[in-house]
Amino acid sequence: MEFVDLAAQRARLRASIDAGVMAVLDHGKFILGPEVAQLEAQLGERVGAHAVGCASGTDAIVLALRALEIGPGDGVIVPSFTFCATAEAVVLVGAVPIFADVDRESALITTATASAAFDAAAAAGVVVKAVVLVDLFGQPVDPTGLATLAAAHGATLIADAAQSYGATLDGASVGALVPVSTTSFFPSKPLGCYGDGGAVFVTDESLVGLLKSLRVHGQGADKYDNVRIGTNSRLDTVQAAVLLAKLAVFDDELDARRELARRYDDGLGEVTRPLTVDPRAESAWAQYTVALANRDDVAAAAKDAGVPTAVYYRAPLHRQPAYSSGLASDDLSNSEWLSDHVLSLPMHPYMSDDDVALVIDVVRRTAIAD
Ligand SMILES: *Cc1c(COP(=O)(O)O)cnc(C)c1O
Questions:
Q1: Which helix (H) or strand (E) holds 358?
Q2: Both ends of the chain: CA-CA distance in Å?
Q3: H helices present in 84-236, as ranges
Q4: 368 falls in which pLDDT band (50, 70, 90)?
Q5: Which residue in 79, 53, 41 sits closest to 158, CA to CA?
Q6: Three-state SS across 214-237?
Q7: Cβ-proximal residues to 27 (8 Å cutoff; 6+ apart), any chain
Q8: 145-166 b/e with 16+ CB inside 10 Å = b?
Q9: What is the pLDDT of residues 46-95, one digit of tens each?
Q10: Residue whose CA is closest, atom 7 of ligand 1?
Q11: Which of 67, 133, 287, 320 has the fewest beta carbons closer than 10 A?
Q12: How far is it, in rounded angstroms, from Cα 350 to Cα 18?
């Protein structure tokens, strides 16, 4: 059994992916070829925003921060319970990460935890310029209260939607819920390519030109006209071709992920505590994650039964040596608690009925709910 079965998807899409990649090898426009613009148009149209491709989900956050002119000395609030890249991007632009706690039930940042992080920043004399909402495991953060809070402080909301492209909240799509969103096309994300890739989404079209300049060395009229310091962060044309083929079946795959999540809920709801999903949200189900009193025992039993599991994430970022210079909110206890209790189960659109039954069986036999 695979934790994410890319081979099954490859078998389904072999013909269309191969044709798309071969077309790029033949036309030879490997950098910002026509497939990139085509993909950006489709990605943006799906969600009702403007999409700009780039080299990774990490770069997407860096580019978003730079487009918002966030740099040395500025404060950026990020949840402590997230993948390291969320905070790493903040440090890469010279800004200071301020760690906020998350809700214990959903593992998402809330207005209350962000507010406590604003207090920690104020106490340290750091001015907060942005709050990064991480759509952990695929569920969008509800930005309503956070938008009011951020506006009161003159800060912008950025969504780190690396795990949530394809998700919705109240029928509105991730990518258009806040002014600036970023995503990743790392192979195991819900929409993944065959290497690294990412995109930035903006609702304000006037930021598109700036992002496109930043990804090509701060170019003006062309790349030999340098009007600002940029970087080299393009989405490869070959990867855009792979993504175009995958986008054709993406809705179908999202449905299969949601169906699997429902089956896990039905099979496991009484013996585990699945992280909660807002009834107004449709998660992209990057991960199906439960909280357990005996997480490590369940993981070991699963491994013996041939069921792969994963722990996202074993340490909150404020406990990681690399981020010791970040500012921590007073109370980060939910981030610490989740790091000790979460377990993610196999999640992909191609799970067989037998595999689903095996996962449910081993977890039911061993789990102690928290
Ligand atoms: C995967 C991920 C990233 C980074 O994406 P890459 O494409 O690997 O650089 C950033 N934030 C979160 C929450 C992620 O899951």
A1: helix 353-366
A2: 26
A3: 85-92, 111-123, 144-152, 206-214
A4: confident
A5: 79
A6: HCECCECCCCCCECCCCCECCCEH
A7: 33, 34
A8: ebbebbeebebbbbbbbbbbbb
A9: 999 999 999 999 999 999 999 999 999 999 999 999 999 999 999 999 99
A10: 57
A11: 320
A12: 20
Cβ distance 101 to 334 under 8 Å? yes
Task: Count Cβ neighbours within 10 Å for each residue of 272-293 and write b for 16 or more, e otherwise.
Answer: bbbbebeeebbbbbbbbbbbbe
CA dist list (Å): 285 to 169, 192, 255? 13, 13, 10
Residues with C-beta less than 6 Å from any ligand 1 atom: 56-58, 82-83, 85-86, 134, 160, 162-163, 184, 186, 196, 198
- Ligand 1: residue of 92, 102, 160 to mutate (most ligand atoms within 8 A of CB) is 160
Name the pTM for this structure.
Answer: 0.98
> In the chain, what percentage of residues exceed pLDDT 90?
96
Contacts of 203 (CB under 8 A, 6+ apart): 48, 49, 50, 176, 178, 179, 180
Q: How confident is the model over 94-132, as pLDDT tens digits?
A: 999 999 999 999 999 999 999 999 999 999 999 999 999
Starting at the edge strand that comes first in sequence, how are the strands of the sheet with 168-169 ordered?
172-173, 168-169, 281-282
What sign does the dihedral 166-170-172-174 (CA atoms) show?
A: negative
Distance CA 59, CA 348 (A): 25
Question: Could you tell me the distance, in angstroms and rounded to a whole number, from the CA of residue 366 to the centre of ligand 1?
Answer: 31
Question: Measured between alpha carbons, how far is 154 from 179 in angstroms, rounded to an integer?
Answer: 14
Give the integer Cα–Cα distance in Å for 231 and 224: 13
